[in-house]
Amino acid sequence: MTEIDYYEILQVSKNCDGSELKKSFRKLAMQYHPDRNPDNKEAEDKFKLINEAYQVLSDDEKRSIYDRYGKAGLEGRGMGGFGGNANMDDIMDIFNSMFGGGFGGFSRSSRGESAKYASDFEIRYTLEFNEAIFGCEKEIDIEYKTSCKACNGTGAKGGKLETCKTCNGQGQVVSRQGFMTFAQTCPHCHGAGSVAKDKCDVCNGKSYETKKDKVTIKVPAGIDNGNRLRVKGYGNISKNGHRGDLYVTFSVKEDEHFIRNGNDIYIEVPIFFTQAILGEKVKIPSLKGELELNLKKGTNDKEQFVFANEGVADVHSGRRGKLVAQVKILFPNKLDENQQKLLEELQDSFGIESKPHKSVFESCFERVKEWFN
Prior knowledge:
By secondary structure, the chain is α+β, with helices and mostly antiparallel strands. The chain has 5 domains: 6-99, Orthogonal Bundle (Helix Hairpins), CATH 1.10.287; 114-154 and 205-253, HSP40/DNAj peptide-binding domain (Sandwich); 161-196, no CATH class; 258-330, Urease metallochaperone UreE, N-terminal domain (HSP40/DNAj peptide-binding domain), CATH 2.60.260; 337-371, no CATH class. 27% of the residues lie in helices and 27% in strands. The strands form 6 sheets. It has a 4-stranded mixed beta sheet with strand order 10-11-15-14. The chain has a 3-stranded mixed beta sheet with strand order 1-9-8. The relative contact order is 0.09.
């Protein structure tokens, strides 16, 4: 009977290094994992061999013995399947990174009391358009959590706890599927291993109380939608007295005239059709006051004029974006008799130029006529 070659199983050479070995193990474990090959006995057996081979070759001492004496030299040295302890943390970390933990009996229990709430928390705060552009100082109201003193943060009346009956105090519930062992955090005690005998009267079993506070924050110029500001030391207070951080995520109101896109500002400039034809200098608003827009003769509708360094200051670098003025040409809604006459005279004065459709469609009309001849 031919002996199993661990190097062949892991598809590596005998002089491979640790990183090459781990890379190949990751690839093969992903390929043959039972969860990805349900009801496949061949894949299950292959998966067992892959883990057996990696447990040996990833341990320098076992690898040296295996290279000299083969598998027989490892008998009685803690080798075989998942029985050995060497490099099990390494194997577990690989599986956690690939599958999120809880596979093949590799999950480690984090016994002990878990936090009932996070030390950090986040709120949303709305700013006016100008407050975000130029920066400001704001005093805001917050509500934070602090451990209930009456029950010492346990949620139990008088702090009295009893062993969780669901997990028997283990903090985890275990199930088996084939040769695989799955461990999950206990849904009843959430991993603590113990539960309240009776709910605390003060916090109603929540383990914390809610307090109100005020905090003054300095909003830097250039803040935009979705930007987040960390306020150190204004988060929730844990059972050991440590206070986390507050994170403020901003929403910015829109402006009636200015439209922001990153650090650039857009503004629509309405002009009369005669201004577009004749050209004219018009004053437009900017973030700093006003600018002069020089309309050239024959300005087109939706034409854009760019003013460098007239946008928003970048919240990190301070560099300013641009202001983009986009023209919107307006036409009269109605004409009186005199205006009608003047426009007709103006049109006639341009001759054929005032009726460009004639020259464009002349050849088209001829072709259409030929289609029916």
